[in-house]
Amino acid sequence: MTDYAVASPAQARLTIKNSDQLFPVRRIYCVGKNYVAHVREMNADERDEPVIFMKPSDAIVRGGGEIPYPVLSNDFHYEGELVVALKSGGYNIAEDDAQSHIFGYAVGLDMTRRDHQLNAIEKGLPWEITKAFDHSAPVGTLTRVEDVGHVNDAVLRLSVNGDTRQDANVNLMLWNTKEIIARLSQQHRLMPGDIIMTGTPAGVGAVQTGDKITLTCDGLEALSISIGGLAA
Ligand code: MN
To answer: How many Å lie between the centroid of ligand 1 and the Cα of residue 67?
Structure first.
C-alpha cells in the first residue's frame, strides 16, 4: 500500500442506474454558451467555437441533497445541463467516432457565482471563482447508453420550488455532443472518467437559501438539490 505523506484525496464518483458499480470522475469539462433561443431559425454558419472551462472533480455533489450558499456572492445561479460521461477517450477524436466513447448520461447543475462571472468577463480575469468553487457541480445518477441510447432529442427541465424556469430540448444545442467531444479532444486528451457539462438553455436565475431545485431530462434520473445556509 502506498504510504502518502498527507491524507490521500478521495476519488470523486457518480452512481449508475441499474448497477452496483460507481463511475470515477477524472475531469469535469464544461461548455459555455451552447444554446440560443430560436436556434432553428438561425444560420448554422454563424456559430462560434464552443467556450470550454473546467471544474475540479471534487466539486461533484453526487446524486442530490443540500449544498451551501457560497460566500463571496449575492447572485448564486443554477444552470441545468445534460452531462455526458466518457468510458474511453483519445486525442483529436473524429466526430463520427465521438459517440463510441460515451458511457452514459446524467443531468447536472453548473452552479455559478454570476456576479463574479460578470466581473471576470469585464476584467478578463480567470473563472475559478465563478465556476470552480466547492459544491458547484451537483450531478445525478448516470444512465448507461445501453439503458437509454444516445440522448440527442430530450427535454431538459429545471424548476425552483415547483416553478419551471428552464424548459428546452437538448437538440437545441449549438454544438451537439459529437461535435463537443471532437473539439474538446483537440484541446485535451480525453480519458475514461471525464464528464462534460454540455451547456445550459435559457432561463438561468438566482436561488436563495431554502430553495429547492429539481432538474429532469427525458429518459434520465432526476436530480434534486436544496440550497442551505452560508458555506462554513
Ligand atoms: Mn454552464
So the answer is: 17
- Cα 66 from Cα 94, distance rounded (Å): 39
Q: Could you give the residue ranges of the DSSP H alpha helices within the chain?
A: 95-98, 114-123, 128-131, 145-148, 177-187
Answering whether pTM is above 0.90, one says yes
How much distance in Å is there from the Cα of 81 to the middle of ligand 1? 7
47 alpha carbon – ligand 1 mean position (Å): 17
Give me ligand 1 centre to Cα 53, in Å.
9
Rounded to the nearest angstrom, the distance between the alpha carbon of 65 and the centre of ligand 1 is: 20
pLDDT at 121: 82
Question: Cα–chain-centroid distance for residue 224?
Answer: 14
Mind listing the pLDDT tens digit for each residue in 192-223? Answer: 999 999 999 999 999 999 999 999 999 999 99
Average pLDDT over residues 77-102: 97
